[in-house]
Every structure is written in C-alpha cells, then in structure tokens.
Write a structure and sequence with these properties.
The protein has 364 residues and is an all-alpha fold. α2 packs across α3 and α9 packs across α12. It starts with a helix and ends in a 10-residue tail after the last helix.
C-alpha cells in the first residue's frame, strides 16, 4: 500500500502526467504526432535498406542505357565493353554518395531535408525532386479526394437505406453485389474497363486530357471529368462495397440497442430514430476506417495510374523504382506515408470530437 501510494505521489508531481491529466486531448494529439515522426524515421531507414539490398544501383542503370545507345549507334563490341571503366564507375558512385553504407546515406538525406529543406535532384532526369512531386501530387490528390467523397456519400445513403430493408430481396441483392465488387481484383476491373473503352470508343483509354489547364480552364474541367470517369468508376466500385456493408451492419447493431427501444416507446418517429440517433453512432467506425480507406485508395491509384496513363504520384513512384532513383523513391514514399499517417491522426482526433464518451488519458 505504501509503495502504491508513493508511486501515485511521484506521478502526480510529474510534469508529463500533470499535462496529460489537464489536457487529455492535446496530449493525445502530441503523442500521435511524435509517433508519426518516429514511424516516418524508421520507414525511411527501411527504404534505404531495401534499396541497398536490391541488385545493382542507378550507376548500373546508367551504364546499361549507355551500352544500349552505343549498340543502336552501331558501336563495336570492344567499345561497348569499355564504355565505363571501374574508376569511372567508382567516381560516379562517390559523387552520388552511393559508396557509403545506407545508414550514412539516410542520415545525409535527413540532414539535407531537415536543415537545408532540399529533397535533392532526381538521379535520372536531374530535375529537382520537389518539382517532380509538386507536378504530380495534385493530380493524385484530386483523383483520390473525388473518389473518397463519392464513396462516403453513397456508402451512407445506401448503407442506411438497406439497413431499413434488412432481410428483403433488395437487401440480399445489394449485399451480394457489394461482396462481389469488394472481392473483385481491382487490376482486372481496370483492364476490363480499358478494354471496354477501347472497343466501344465511348470513353478515352487515357485518364488525362492532352492539353494543359492554362490553355482553356473551362474546357479542361469538362475534358478531365470525361477522361477520369472510368478510373473513378473503378475506384468507386472497389471502395463502396466494404464501406457500405460496414455502415449497414453498424446501423443494424444500433437499431437493436435498448436506447432505440426506449426512443420508440416514447413515440418518436422512425425517421428521427434512424437519422438523429442511430445514424450518429455510425460515424465512429467510419471515421476510424476512413484512414484505411484513404490508404487503400492511394495504393490502388498506383495500378490505376499505370494502366490509364494518369500523370500522378503513383506512376512517378513506379518509374522511380524501376530506375532505382533513390532520391525520388524515398521522397515519394515519405510523402505518401506522411499523408496516410496524418489521415489516421486526423481520424482519431475527429473520433474524439464526435464521441463525447471518449476521454483520452483518463480512467473510467
């Protein structure tokens, strides 16, 4: 008993626990941000390790490109073999910092980013990495944000509606199609939609207009909507199945709760019971799962952007990995991971604000 009392007395004078007890939500936000930074640090180190374990490096890629260009130009065999000497290769690796252990390379990269705010240059195109990311990230954000909005709106509308039709033929048919599209391979769906566009000619096989927005903004908006319809439709079908079923099951669970029976016994209309009481409690699991939905949309957009030639961050990532462009791969991964982790943190904060029963850092 004395040891327990002494431990509580020590904790009561600890500045961290004082801050945590006075500001539970703020301390939770700070802890989440610190956790996000630690995860990003470990993730960056792991990416450097994976790139170091991969066979070859970007210098080998450049040598192969040089040999291919000499072959196409009709160069001799001896000339191709001596395209780069060992000293030249070692010098190129030293200039790029590839001769150091991957941990040293990673800390050098961190120093350049945090101190000088410089993401470096692409080792292939020699363009600034920040410029390449800025030119692509907007396209990916717009596409995934539109997908998230449509999935959210229709998931709630259909989930609430079909929960009121539980057990009927309509509900069984909707559940079947939701499970079907949720389990259907996304890459196969994208390929089938592109084949449909190619055969019928109703939609373009590429997902981006062939002229810039500065040329004609109004025309670009209509053309962009027309080009992204099929990719957006595929993303919508892949995401709405699981989200709609989650909202439907949550609504059915809420409708069986004792407080719903009490509300009905007081004569409150069924419409108000659904929309003002049961519906609000479906927000909690959706907010929790929205971060995972956002992460799945970004990961799925990689395949989408490759198949439909959409100039987004996923296609840029694919090209960087294939060319082993370390600076571009790391910056892309860290940026996307930061977006996903930030989405998870925001979803936790929104969950705390929506549900007043949650008290972070307090017992009971």
């Amino acid at each position: 008993m004395q040891g327990r009392f002494f431990g509580r007395a020590v904790l009561s004078h600890n500045p961290y626990f004082i801050f945590k007890n006075k500001f539970p939500l703020l301390s939770f936000i700070v802890s989440r941000i610190v956790t996000m930074v630690v995860i990003l640090f470990i993730l960056g180190w792991a990416l450097f390790a994976l790139m170091a374990l991969a066979p070859g490096d970007i210098v080998d890629q450049m040598m192969q490109q040089q040999l291919m260009s000499q072959t196409e130009a009709g160069g001799g065999g001896a000339e191709r073999d001596n395209a780069f000497s060992e000293e030249q290769l070692a010098k190129m690796r030293a200039e790029m910092g590839l001769d150091k252990p991957f941990t040293v390379q990673y800390f050098r990269w961190l120093n350049r980013v945090l101190v000088h705010h410089d993401l470096g240059v692409s080792l292939i195109s020699k363009a600034p990495v920040s410029f390449l990311i800025k030119s692509r990230i907007v396209n990916s954000l717009v596409l995934n944000f539109i997908s998230l909005v449509f999935i959210t709106i229709f998931s709630f509308l259909l989930g609430v509606y079909f929960s009121s039709k539980a057990g009927t033929r309509t509900d069984i048919a909707a559940t079947f199609f939701a499970l079907f599209f949720h389990a259907f391979p996304g890459i196969l769906l994208l390929i089938l939609l592109q084949l449909f566009a190619s055969v019928t000619g109703l939609f373009p096989v590429t997902a981006y207009p062939d002229f810039p927005i500065s040329e004609n903004p109004i025309k670009f908006i209509f053309s962009y909507s027309y080009h992204i319809f099929l990719p957006l439709f595929a993303s919508f079908l892949g995401g709405i199945g699981g989200t709609m079923r989650m909202i439907r099951s949550t609504m059915l669970d809420q409708m069986g709760m004792p407080y719903i029976m009490a509300l009905r016994s007081r004569g409150i209309s069924e419409r108000r019971v659904y929309l003002h009481h049961a519906f609000r409690n479906t927000l909690n699991p959706y907010i929790t799962g929205s971060a995972n939905l956002l992460a799945s949309l970004f990961s799925g957009s990689l395949v989408l952007e490759i198949i439909f030639s959409y100039p987004g961050i996923g296609r840029l990532m694919y090209d960087a990995v294939m060319q082993q462009d370390v600076n571009l791969v790391l910056a892309n991964n860290m940026f996307i991971s930061a977006l996903v982790l930030a989405g998870m943190t925001i979803s936790d904060i929104l969950l705390a604000l929506v549900d007043p029963r949650i008290r972070y850092g307090k017992e009971g």
